[in-house]
Specification:
The complex is a heterodimer of chains A (about 375) and B (about 110). Chain A has about 375 residues and is α+β, with helices and mostly antiparallel strands. In chain A, about 30% of the residues lie in helices and about 30% in strands. Chain A is built from twelve helices and 16 strands. In chain B, a hairpin with a 5-residue loop joins strand 1 and strand 2 (about 15-20). Classes of the chains: A alpha+beta (about 375), B alpha+beta (about 110). Bound molecules: FE2/S2 (inorganic) cluster.
Chain lengths: ~375, ~110
């Protein structure tokens, strides 16, 4: 059997794509079933009507459908057809976005336009949603405190945010497409490579900051930068994208070392002081005690109340009790904010009688609350 | 290099340093200015980079060519200040220009 399109009308009618034939005056001469289904108008409702019945002129948009359709018909592949859509208003007054394809043919000396329409409403809505979500995500990444960097399967940088520029000194333009090596110290290239290979081969989806500890990056100027990083991998179409969130910890490290230094200074003064010194918490328990104070005790104190330490070499339990009680009371008044200074008689571990100029002073915080108590004792036996 | 001020239809202002020779659509997209889509990548084929420019700055921009004028047919709420900003290239003269972004690009 040979195919003979003897009834072209039936053929167009059963075409699965919505289509119409328009006269050069912009009148709908024919429409197929798919178009009546899409628009909700019947064939008689459309045929003979101006095309603006279906694709009306909008008050807010000046596009003249007839002249654009004839313009497009004359150009075999106008770029606009890939991006522009017309608005189709259905019988139920629903607005659909349609992309069009159009060609011109001549018959009996007249021009006709064959117009094929495609409903892209939901495609457009999805695309718009995605773009907006992407815009929001990108804006978040752009203002983040951490650098965000992605690399493709070849370790070329494919994403670089503002903070990455400020940490590493390269602009987005300078970084995109370049190898990650540009921000790594040469000495660490091999170990970084191994780390990445290991992560790629592994089953974890991400590794968080702190799971790896400190790493080192390289600034454009060549300076090393201490960093922390979390990484995550995303496989898209078989291609792995690695993304890292990178934090510059230079300042934190500097603060830490300053703190360590000042702690060491404090310790040196405290431990080497000739006076016996102790730091108590706000309930009177010993937090720290220095070497001179330890010399007055027989055992190493640990978290006891200051007054319970064995300062005394009293012979009777009553005398011991009395001395302990006196010190407890004194400490109690200091907990309430007072300062106490007195002279006490003690005997050292070796049994020497000692006269001690003893003071207890509160240390207050900015709200005036006692946070520590400083106990100090100076040996004034010889004075 | 010069400063370009983009104002969203809700009034949000974005001031961006743009290199000479860069299109004002591209600069907006790179800096994630909401409201400028640039679907066709600057081919003057999508009308999704519609902005309004006041006359004093419009004079300093290159003339509109017939294609831009035609494609503006597809933009929403076009008036005499309308331009497709992919067709405007940054130059010394445009340092300080303000573009008001159209409320709707699709
Ligand atoms: S970006 Fe498409 S017309 Fe300007």
């Amino acid at each position: 059997m040979t195919f003979s399109p003897d009834n072209i009308n039936d053929l167009l009618c059963s075409l699965p794509e919505p289509m119409l034939i328009m006269s050069s005056a912009g009148e709908i001469a024919f429409c197929n079933q798919a178009l009546t289904q899409l628009s909700g108008f019947s064939q008689p409702q459309l045929e003979g009507q101006p095309i603006t019945h279906l694709l009306p002129q909008s008050e807010r948009r000046r596009v003249d459908v007839v002249s654009w359709l004839s313009r497009w018909a004359d150009d075999p592949d106008p770029a606009q057809l890939r991006f522009l859509t017309l608005e189709l208003v259905t019988h139920d007054n629903e607005r659909l976005q349609v992309s069009v394809r159009v060609s011109r043919y001549e018959s009996h000396g007249a021009n006709w336009f064959l117009v094929v329409l495609r409903d892209v409403t939901s495609e457009h809505a999805t695309l718009t949603r995605l773009r907006h979500a992407q815009l929001v995500t990108n804006r978040i990444l752009a203002i983040g405190e951490d650098a965000v960097i992605s690399i493709d399967a070849n370790q070329r940088i494919s994403f670089w945010n503002r903070q990455a520029s400020s940490i590493f000194g390269y602009t987005e333009e300078e970084a995109l497409g370049h190898s990650l090596e540009m921000i790594l110290p040469t000495s660490l290239l091999a170990s970084h490579q191994r780390y990445v290979q290991d992560f790629l081969a592994g089953t974890e989806g991400h590794r968080l900051m702190g799971q790896r500890g400190e790493i080192t990056g390289r600034h454009k100027s060549g300076r090393d930068i201490p960093l922390e990083a979390s990484i995550t991998k995303t496989v898209i179409d078989g291609q792995t994208v690695l993304s890292a969130q990178v934090r510059d910890i230079s300042e934190r490290k500097a603060a830490e070392s300053m703190l360590k230094e000042s702690e060491a200074r404090f310790r040196a003064v405290f431990e080497h002081a000739l006076e016996a010194m102790a730091v108590l918490d706000d309930s009177g328990r010993v937090v720290e005690i220095n070497a001179s104070a330890r010399n007055l005790l027989e055992t190493e104190p640990s978290g006891q109340f200051f007054w319970d330490l064995n300062w005394w070499r009293e012979t009777t339990p009553e005398a011991l009790h009395e001395a302990t009680e006196r010190l407890r009371e004194m400490t109690g008044t200091v907990i309430n904010g007072a300062t106490v200074r007195t002279t006490v008689q003690l005997s050292s571990v070796t049994g020497e009688a000692k006269k001690i100029d003893f003071s207890l002073r509160p240390v207050l915080n900015s709200n005036g609350q006692v946070i520590y108590i400083i106990a100090e004792g100076r040996d004034i036996t010889a004075l | 290099m010069g400063m370009v001020r983009y104002i969203e239809s809700n009034g949000t202002v974005h001031e961006i340093d743009v290199k000479n020779g860069t299109s004002l659509m591209q600069a907006a997209v790179t800096h994630m200015v909401p409201g400028i889509e640039g679907d066709c990548g600057g081919a003057c084929a999508c009308a999704t980079c519609h902005v309004y420019i006041d006359p004093e700055w419009r004079q300093k921009c290159a003339e509109m060519d017939p294609l831009e004028l035609a494609v503006l047919d597809f933009a929403w709420d076009v008036n005499e200040d309308s331009r497709l900003c992919c067709q405007i290239t940054m130059s010394e003269e445009l340092d300080g220009i303000t573009l008001r972004i159209a409320e709707r690009q699709y």
